[in-house]
Amino acid sequence: MGILDGKVAIVTGASQSVGRAEAIALAKEGAAVTLVARSYDKLVQVGKEIEAFGGRALPVQCDVCDKQQILAAVEATVEKFGTVDILVNNAQITNFAVVPMEDWSDEDYHRVVDSGPTATWHFMRACFPYMKANGGGKVINTGSGAQRAAMPGYSGYGTAKGAIWALTRNAAMDWAQHNILVNMITPAAVGPAMFEQHTQEEIDAFGKMNPLGRIGDAEQDIAPVVVFLASPASDYMTANYLSCDGGFSPL
């Protein structure tokens, strides 16, 4: 038996890296998982991995920048599994130009905001009625060290992640009366998006900056924290910010 038997989860950005690891970990603990991302073929593959160990998965292609597609993904989840108990907002467009604030394009700014805090807002509101009806639920949002540590070239991204932190805290206050617990993690793990923006040398240097001296592993270092926040072990925690980044955030 898993600690999430009978629960239903939605994981956005589940086609690769951290989102994939989170979805698989939740499924291994017994949750039925809706896999959300733009790349349907990759979602199908993750779904097959989950089904191979007896888990339940529903791949749903969704551009999180589109509210109607978000609503459709939640509706598909309820149609397939009956409800929503756990929401993991992991998706975030990260292929933006790392440049000074004055050189950020409007397109890049809106892409990071639309895929980050705006998508998180729409997914949370779409799942709220089902969590309320269930007598509670778990929302796990994804931040970044960029919202705390000033990072040159990341003004738009840091703004987006800072907005998610504000949303997390305020929603936690609004929804505590419904036993819907809203927390945030800030992961640092190697994934495809990191290689799109940085060289291997830069990634290695970033790892050495961490007090633990390495970049995190999505399966070993990040996914277990999400399972904890989704489980009964965190039933007295809300409005919290958990850093999974080797100690980088306080620097």
Beta-strand content bin: 15-25%
Count of alpha and pi helical runs:
8
How helix-rich are the residues, as a percent range? 40-55%
Structural class: alpha/beta
Mean pLDDT: 92
Q: Span from first to last CA? A: 40 Å
Q: Which geometry do the CA atoms define?
A: globular
Low-confidence stretches: none
Order of helices and strands: EHEHEHEHEHEHHHE
The counted number of beta strands is 7
Adjacency order of strands in the biggest sheet: 3-2-1-4-5-6-7
Q: What does the radius of gyration come to?
A: 17 Å
Main sheet summary = 7 strands, parallel
Give the gist of this structure.
With 251 residues, this protein is of the alpha/beta class. The chain has helices at residues 17-28, 40-52, 67-81, 106-134, 155-175, 192-197, 200-209, 218-230; strands at 8-12, 32-37, 57-61, 86-89, 137-142, 180-187, 241-244.
Folded structure, characterized:
The chain is of the alpha/beta class and 251 residues long. Helices cover 47% and strands 15% of the residues. The protein contains eight helices and seven strands. The chain has helices spanning 17-28, 40-52, 67-81, 106-134, 155-175, 192-197, 200-209, 218-230, and strands at 8-12, 32-37, 57-61, 86-89, 137-142, 180-187, 241-244. It is globular and about 45 Å long. The mean pLDDT is 92.
